[in-house]
Amino acid sequence: MPGNKIRGFIGVKSNDGHDAAILVVADIMKKGGIEVILGGYDLTVDKFVRAVVQEGVHFAGISSYNGGHMPFFRAVRDELRRRDYPFLHIVGGGGATITPPEIEALEREEGIDKIFRSGEGHLVAPFIREHYDFPAVNGHPEDLLEGVLDGNELAISQALNVAEEKARLESALEKIKAGLDWPEDSRAAREALDRPLEKDGPAAKEVLAQVRRYSDFLSKLDAPAGESGTTVYGIAGRGGAGKSALIDELVLRFFKDARAGRKKCAILAVDPSSHSSGGALLADRIAYMYATDKNWVDVGRTYVRSVASRGHGQGIARALPDMVKILKAAGYEIFVETYGTGQPDSGIVGLVDKPVFVATPDIGGAAQIAKEEMLNLPGATVALNKSELPGARHVSSLLRGRVAEERLFLTTAIEHDNAGVNRLYRFLTEHYS
């Protein structure tokens, strides 16, 4: 099997606001070729474990700089075990806060693999690559079907892993795409399929068989997804436009909306992969305060999944269509956030029901705006976010030359109960009535 993409979730334990160290560790992991999901700080056991389950990661990393780490590590491990999470691998660190005797005690515990000491940051990525290079997929994906349709979070998480693994293997198979385009019983095709995709790996035909098995499983979700009647919203725009904050505000309004009833809401947040290392820093989750904090919304009705682009263009990931299908079959309203490539960031349009382009006052002049592909699409909805900043009035006048008045909204996503966000939400959800 081609080398696996290793995914991990890291966060700072509850009552601990020290986030500098974890940002350094996250960058080390990314440079080491690891896809790392940044969970932020002050995470309770429940928030930590729920994120790990939803993200379907190979390992979980806990940072602690203010004490209380011994019970926290054990509580996270025990809760993951209680939820039958299949990849029970925990690492952590806390500089000099975690003493050598405590480190030895924790590392003797089942499921707590490694506590890194002060000055051992350079050992993090090699340890993870050595110990967690395995496929994070269910050996019998067909067994997940009932759980997905019932809305079981663990089953959904495992199905999403299947979608990502299928996409990864499809990308690997493209190396011999010319061979796969021929009839499979031809000599040239047989030779191509008999070759391994990498040294000491399986033959291409074995990988192809695995892809077909995953495709067969995912195809069983076509009908339930089509019949779900849920809506997929696509939020695109350049990096720094405030897409995550805008989604979080829309989610808060969703849960306050009586028309939504008991509908569930999911977010698929795509971030770019590193061209140099293949790793990724998936940090959108920390911006979704309302969507992930039980003090604001019913988190039993929310699902957040971070997605690395893995070199795919147009602001999305190759696995995204299958991931959307899985969540639709599970009954979720879905927000998809692109990774913000700017002008060609239009791949989302064909995957969603209601695409929204998020612009800001520093987008540029008329010529620059004309380059934005989503503004050339019929029926485009545009949110001019950070509209309180200088230049917003001028840019809004330029946008009105390209977007219908009723589809242009001036928003300030960081302002609570912002009138522009309210209008945008009502426009996007008018079908709820």
Write the layout of secondary structure elements.
Layout: E1 7-12, H1 20-31, E2 35-38, H2 45-55, E3 59-63, H3 69-82, E4 90-93, H4 100-107, E5 112-116, H5 124-131, H6 145-150, H7 153-173, H8 177-180, H9 187-194, H10 204-219, H11 222-227, E6 232-237, H12 243-256, E7 264-271, E8 280-282, H13 289-292, E9 302-308, H14 320-329, E10 332-337, E11 354-359, H15 366-371, E12 381-384, H16 392-400, E13 408-410, H17 419-428
Parallel strand pairs: 1-2, 1-3, 2-8, 3-4, 4-5, 6-10, 6-11, 7-9, 7-10, 11-12, 12-13
Helix pairs in contact: 2-3, 7-10, 7-14
Task: Give a quick rundown of the structure.
The protein has 433 residues and is of the alpha/beta class.
Order of neighbouring strands in the sheet with most strands = 9-7-10-6-11-12-13
Structural class: alpha/beta
Broad shape: globular
CATH class of the largest domain: Alpha Beta
Major sheet description: 7 strands, parallel
CATH fold call of the largest domain: Rossmann fold
| Number of structural domains | 3
Distance between the termini: 49 Å
State Rg.
22 Å
| Helical run tally | 17
**Overall number of strands:** 13
Mean pLDDT: 90
The CATH homologous superfamily of the largest domain: P-loop containing nucleotide triphosphate hydrolases
Percentage of residues in strands: 15-25%
Helical content class: 25-40%
- CATH-level-2 architecture of the largest domain: 3-Layer(aba) Sandwich
Written as H for each helix and E for each strand, in order along the chain, the element string is: EHEHEHEHEHHHHHHHEHEEHEHEEHEHEH
Low-confidence stretches: none
